[in-house]
Amino acid sequence: MKKAKNNQPENEATELRDQEMEATAETTTGETAESSGTEDKVAELNDKYLRLYSEFDNYRRRTARERLDLMKSAAADLLSELLPVADDFDRTVSSIETSEKKEIDALLEGVKLVQHKFINTLQKQGLTAFDAMEQPFDPDVHEAITKIPAPTPELKGKVVDVIEKGYMLNDRVLRYAKVVVGE
Q1: Residue 71 CA to chain centroid, in angstroms?
Q2: Packing angle of the helix pair 76-98, 104-124 (nearest 10 deg)
Q3: Residues 98-150: pLDDT tens digits?
Q4: CATH 2.10.109.10 for the 127-183 domain, yes or no
């Protein structure tokens, strides 16, 4: 029986050791679960932060681009209003050139000078006229007023006459050219 009494403290010591190991294992597992949850939360917050930063960066770039576009086309309304004046200059010069009076030469010279100065001012603002005569009809830059039989077979589907010139402002169509198309 002595042996049984001796085994009893050993069994108790073994049981205590086993209980301590189980408690240590549970604590370690709990800490691992907590740190895993914390890492997941950190990863989720980091992902949200990166997405928010990217959205803000895209917003900043878009607004800067829109601001530049607005600055480039800010004068578009004014220039649109001035285009009929440029057309009147063109018609006046054409009318004076066809007249036969010699006194009109001085007047023609003055009108041409004003027209040239006016056109240069518009060009400084980014306005350019584009040539449409005998070009293939393009609905992106031309507005067909009417169609007529083509005087020659080469002019089929091309611009035969220009009623009003087309203008571009910084590579964008400001006014479509009003044209007559040959068919």
Answers
A1: 13
A2: 160
A3: 777 766 777 788 788 888 888 888 888 888 999 889 899 999 999 999 999 98
A4: no
